[in-house]
From TrEMBL:
Gene for this chain: nd4
Pfam families xref list: Proton_antipo_M
GO biological process, one term: ATP synthesis coupled electron transport
Family according to the record: Belongs to the complex I subunit 4 family.
Name this polypeptide is given: NADH-ubiquinone oxidoreductase chain 4
Source organism phylogeny: Eukaryota, Metazoa, Chordata, Craniata, Vertebrata
Gene Ontology MF term list: NADH dehydrogenase (ubiquinone) activity; NADH dehydrogenase activity; ubiquinone binding
Class in the EC hierarchy, top level: translocase
Role, per record: Core subunit of the mitochondrial membrane respiratory chain NADH dehydrogenase (Complex I) which catalyzes electron transfer from NADH through the respiratory chain, using ubiquinone as an electron acceptor. Essential for the catalytic activity and assembly of complex I. Core subunit of the mitochondrial membrane respiratory chain NADH dehydrogenase (Complex I) that is believed to belong to the minimal assembly required for catalysis. Complex I functions in the transfer of electrons from NADH to the respiratory chain. The immediate electron acceptor for the enzyme is believed to be ubiquinone.
Length: 228
């Protein structure tokens, strides 16, 4: 999710520039699939019971935005695509790292079985909250900048797309909160009362994921291609 999808996005950028200007019979079907994929994969996230499957489908949903922005082939679209790919690469990797810390201790990825971990791992719960807020593109994260560029590009291309991107953003916020509440809140099962503590290396790993996301908003031109 963090590497291979971004390589695919890079390939789309290189190939799309070779096909510019796009023939309409090639552009519209891909755009429709990308926009429809945003809604479908976001909706699938709402009914997932496996934590890693939820995070994986979340990555596919974000890449639908990236694909749509690349197909439009405007400077704003490519800037938003590059920004969101870097931002989501760090966010998705952090979510998988958090899911792995849960799995190493509980040996299950089922959301219904593992709840209330905030009581046992309060610091890890803070990482979960920050990462989920980043995943739903809360300000002042770089994810918000990328999504704003992409949504503006698609609206300029076709105003009705604001409905699809708006619903997709709303569903993204919904399943991000769902993921946080299902893993951190509620009453914990009696079989998970005693769990191994978290390690410094795990907190260092998450710091190295989220610190760049916080610092990049101060100079987004490093990843966006804008040199103002």
């Amino acid at each position: 999710a963090a590497i291979l999808l971004k390589l695919g996005g890079y390939g789309l950028i290189r190939i799309s520039s070779m096909l510019n200007p796009h023939p309409p019979n090639l552009m519209f079907p891909i755009m429709i699939l990308a926009l429809w994929g945003i809604l479908m994969t976001s909706s699938i996230c709402l009914r997932q019971t496996d934590l890693k499957a939820l995070i994986a489908y979340s990555s596919v949903s974000h890449m639908g935005l990236v694909t749509a922005a690349i197909i439009v082939q405007t400077p704003w679209g490519l800037t938003g695509a590059m920004t969101l790919m870097v931002a989501h690469g760090l966010t998705s990797s952090a979510l998988f790292a958090l899911a792995n810390t849960n799995y190493e201790r509980t040996h299950t990825r089922t959301l219904l079985l593992v709840r209330g971990l905030q009581l046992i791992f309060p610091l890890m719960s803070t990482w979960w909250l920050l990462t989920n807020l980043t995943n739903m593109a809360m300000p002042p994260t770089i994810n918000l900048l990328g999504e704003l560029f992409i949504i503006s590009t698609l609206f300029n291309w076709s105003p009705p797309t604001i409905i699809i991107t708006g619903i997709g953003t709303l569903i993204t916020a919904t399943y991000s909160l769902y993921m946080f509440l299902m893993t951190q809140r509620g009453s914990i099962s009696t079989q998970f009362r005693i769990l191994p503590p978290t390690h410094t290396r795990e907190h260092l790993t998450l710091t190295l994921h989220l610190l760049p996301l916080g610092l990049l908003i101060m100079k987004p031109s490093l990843i966006s291609g804008l040199f103002a």
